[in-house]
Hints:
By secondary structure, the chain is α+β, with helices and mostly antiparallel strands.
Amino acid sequence: MNKGNIPLWIAGAVLLYIGWIAFDMLRPTSGGGVGSRTSISAVRAAKVPVLVEFYADWCGPCKVIGPMVEELAKELKGQAVVIRINVDEDPSLSREHGVRGIPTFIAFKSGRETGREVGGIPKERMRQLLGL
């Protein structure tokens, strides 16, 4: 190897490294649970208030309030959107939204967070978070 070619080898290695990083960043990632990424993008586009519950199947309080959340979703059909996201199936999404305990309820209006509650809350408090 000629000493005059060392800068070319270094430049080539740097370009290869940058290309590898760019390729890795552009590669699609696997989503979490059933359409959770799609659900969150729907939050940003929704014209009605949105309530997102972050939960886990093993969580006792989540099991207790799960039926209430699903019942609320049926009651508010057309007035609001209620989404449940399993933190075990999409941990990056829960980290992205700063979820540290479950269940966590986050209310959104026009794509912006308007309220947050951690823990099992009554259905009336869920309605209050939504502004209904």
